[in-house]
Amino acid sequence: MSDPNFLSGSDTQQLTQKGIIDILHSTYRALTAGNIEGALSHFAEDAVLYWGSFIFKGREGITRWTREFIEMFPMMRIIETNLTVHGNTAVHRFIIDFAMMSGRKGMLQVVSKYDFRGRKIQLVQMVPGLGFLIISEAEERSGLGYSVRTRTLKP
Fold it and tell me: Of residues 89 and 6, which shows the higher confidence score?
């Protein structure tokens, strides 16, 4: 019986569109649950992840990014705005809706491009966009409100 997540007869075991979507959703479910190993299980051993201008290489680097991401956004949910798949590549647009340990809340737009090799994510280019923190009236009066824009990643 063939696996519905793979194209039949493929020597390279290319994932189907459904297979890629399932892997990405599983990765983000693991991240939002704080499950580092669950998120890492979808990456190739030699995968590379870009978060803005920062580069994380291999299992060790992506483990560090995953831990830092979960520490940065300990209470979060992912709001998917668009996910397209073409061959072994996907582009995922989503919003991170988060609350920090301090109680502050905010949102961050992200555009991510993924390249797959077999059943694993080989390359991720995440570009954080506009984000904001929800602040109290007292914080606003003191000038603590701000919007953040990171620079665009160049391949």
Answer: 89
3-state SS track over the chain: CCCCCECCCCCCCCECHHHHHHHHHHHHHHHHCCCHHHHHCCEEEEEEEEECCEEEEHHHHHHHHHHHHHHHCCEEEEEEEEEEEECCEEEEEEEEEEECCCCCEEEEEEEEEEEEECCEEEEEEEEEEEEEEECCHHHHHCCCCCEECCCCCCC
Which CATH number covers residue 35? 3.10.450.50
Residue 144 lies inside a defined structural domain of this protein: yes
Q: Is the pLDDT of residue 139 over 70?
A: no
Measured distance CA(76)–CA(94) in Å, rounded = 12
When divided into structural domains, the chain yields a total of 1
Residue 37: which domain range?
17-148
Residue type at position 76:
M
- The CA angle 33-37-43, to the nearest 5 degrees, is 110
The pLDDT of residue 4 is 44
**24: phi then psi, degrees, rounded to nearest 5:** -65, -45
- Which pLDDT score is estimated for 137? 60
User: Within a domain: residue 7?
Assistant: no
For residue 43, what are the β-bridge partners? 121
